[in-house]
Design brief:
Helices cover 41% and strands 16% of the residues. It is an alpha/beta fold and 353 residues long. A hairpin with a 6-residue loop joins strand 9 and strand 10. The structure holds pyridoxal-5'-phosphate.
C-alpha cells in the first residue's frame, strides 16, 4: 500500500511565473513604479513599531477604515484578504457549495476556474463575442437557465483589457437577483466604470480590488472585498482569523493614508499605457494582416497575431531579455517605464517587419 494523491489534485502543477532574471519584465501587470524612498522609510518605521510577538488584528480594522476612506465605502462593507486570490478562494470554497454552479467568462483571469474546480463547484464557461465583449442578455439567460449561484468576471478584463460599462454591470446584477455577481475590479483604477458605490444597494454584488496592480504593492499581498454587511460578515466569518499579517496591515494602512501619491502613480501608469497602446496601434496599422490590438482600459495591451507568431515573438523577446505574457496566439504586454516601452515596441517591430 502506498499513499496516492486524490484525483482532483494529482495532475495539477504549481503556478510558475516565468523564472529567471530578465532585463525587462512586462509579464505580470505589476506597477513599474517603485515606492518612493520616503514612503519606504515611513514603512520601515511603522513595521519597526509593531509587536510581532502578538497576532495581528483579525478584522484588519485600521486597513478597512483607511481603505474605506480612500474608496468612499463604509468599513463594515470591507473584508481584507491575503491578496484578492485568497478572497477568490473563500468565495468559491465557502459561499459556494460542492456541485453548485459557478459561471465564469472566457477569456478571463484563469484562477476563477481553478478555484471553482478545487471547491468542486460546477464551472460553466460563458464565451465572449469576437471583440471580447460580454453580451449581458446572453449571460443573464445562461445564469437563469443553469440556476447559477455565482458569476465572476474581471472588469476591465485581464487579459483582454476590454471593459464592461457600469450600466451593463448593474443590468446584470439586477437581472440575476438570486445569483451573486462578483466583479473583480483589479484594474478599475485605470478606468472610470466602477460599481463600488453600489455594493450597499444590492444584496448580490461583491467587488474585489487589489493592492497588487495600481498601488505598486504586489509584494505585500493585500486584496479587498467590498459588499453589503451581510456578505461581509459571512466572508469575515469564514476566513482564517489571522489571514493578513501585521506587516501587510501596517503598510496597507500607510498606503491608503497617501491618496495623493496613489493618484499620482495611477496617472503616471495611465500615461505609460496610453503611450504603449498608441505605439502598438501604429504598428498594427502598418501591418494589419500581422497584428491586431484591442483598445485597453487596463495597464496592459492585448495583441492578436497570426497562428504561431505569438510563440515566435515571445521566445524572441525572451532571448533579448524581455518577458511578456503569451496566451495561445495572443500576447499581453504590461506597460512599463518609457525606456521599457520603447524597447518592447522596438523588438515587436523587428519581429513583425
Ligand atoms: C492580478 C489579478 C488578481 C490578483 O490579485 P492579488 O491581490 O495579487 O492576489 C486578481 N484578479 C485579477 C483579474 C488580476 O489580474
Amino acid at each position: 500500500m502506498s499513499y496516492t494523491l486524490n484525483e482532483k489534485v494529482r495532475n495539477l502543477t504549481p503556478y510558475e511565473p516565468i523564472a529567471g532574471s530578465y532585463r525587462i519584465r512586462l509579464d505580470a501587470n505589476e506597477s513599474f513604479l517603485e515606492l518612493t524612498p520616503k514612503m519606504k522609510e515611513k514603512m520601515a518605521a511603522r513595521i519597526g513599531a509593531l509587536h510581532l510577538n502578538r497576532y495581528p488584528d483579525p478584522a484588519a480594522s485600521a486597513v478597512c477604515v483607511k481603505a474605506g476612506g480612500y474608496f468612499h465605502v463604509r468599513p463594515e462593507c470591507i473584508t481584507v484578504g491575503n491578496g484578492s486570490d485568497e478572497l477568490l478562494t473563500l468565495i468559491t470554497q465557502t459561499l459556494m457549495g460542492k456541485g453548485e454552479k459557478l459561471v465564469y467568462t472566457t477569456p478571463d483571469f484563469s484562477m476563477y476556474r481553478l478555484y471553482g474546480y478545487l471547491a468542486e463547484n460546477e464551472c460553466i464557461g460563458f464565451t465572449k463575442d469576437d471583440s471580447f465583449r460580454i453580451d449581458v442578455d446572453a449571460l443573464i439567460a445562461l445564469i437563469r437557465k443553469e440556476g447559477a449561484r455565482t458569476v465572476i468576471f474581471s472588469n476591465p478584463c485581464n487579459p483582454t483589457g476590454v471593459g464592461l460599462p457600469r450600466e451593463e454591470v448593474l443590468r446584470l446584477v439586477e437581472g440575476v437577483p438570486d445569483c451573486l455577481v462578483v466583479v473583480d475590479e483589479a484594474y478599475m483604477d485605470f478606468w472610470d466604470q466602477s460599481v463600488l458605490d453600489c455594493v450597499e444597494k444590492y444584496d448580490n454584488l461583491m467587488v474585489l480590488k487589489t493592492c497588487s496592480k495600481a498601488f505598486s504593492m504586489a509584494g505585500i499581498r493585500c486584496g479587498l472585498a467590498f459588499a453589503n454587511p451581510v456578505l461581509t460578515n459571512a466572508l469575515r466569518a469564514v476566513k482564517s482569523p489571522y489571514n493578513v499579517n501585521a506587516m501587510t496591515q501596517a503598510v496597507a494602512e500607510l498606503m491608503f493614508e497617501s491618496p495623493h501619491e496613489l493618484n499620482q502613480a495611477i496617472r503616471c501608469i495611465i500615461e505609460s499605457r496610453d503611450w504603449l497602446y498608441a505605439a502598438v496601434r501604429a504598428l498594427a496599422e502598418r501591418f494589419p494582416e500581422k497584428l491586431r490590438v484591442l483598445p485597453t482600459a487596463a495597464n496592459f495591451v492585448y495583441l492578436q497575431l497570426p497562428e504561431g507568431e505569438a510563440a515566435r515573438i515571445f521566445e524572441g523577446m525572451k532571448e533579448n531579455g524581455v518577458v511578456i505574457r503569451r496566451m495561445g496566439d495572443c500576447l499581453r504586454i504590461t506597460c512599463g517605464t518609457r525606456e521599457e516601452n520603447a524597447e518592447v515596441v522596438r523588438l515587436l517591430e523587428e519581429w513583425i517587419a
